[in-house]
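Researcher: Here's a chain I'd like modeled. Treat it as a single chain, no partners, no ligands.
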Amino acid sequence: MDEKRLRGLMGLSVRAGQAVFGEEGCRKLILQEGCGVLLLDAGASANTRERYERLCAAQETQMAVLPEGLIQEATGRSGVAMALRSGSFSEQVTSCLQTEG
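Model: Modeled as a single isolated chain. Structure tokens:
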């Protein structure tokens, strides 16, 4: 994972209005099949993580667990989950997550 590039993409996606925060917002976007990728903070509780894993699996949405605090550092928003709308930003983030280094 290229963490520096990922931080930049996460910040840009927020400014571009392509990111959704909060449990209800993320859940809604996933259920509407408009979520390209769900980013979850490693500090999320086991119940929260399990709930998102089930939801993402049922809707065939990619989910990635990020190092604790990365979402807040990159976006300035508190919370344990960030959903990116399907499109260019989510594709770039997905590619970045798969990159070594």
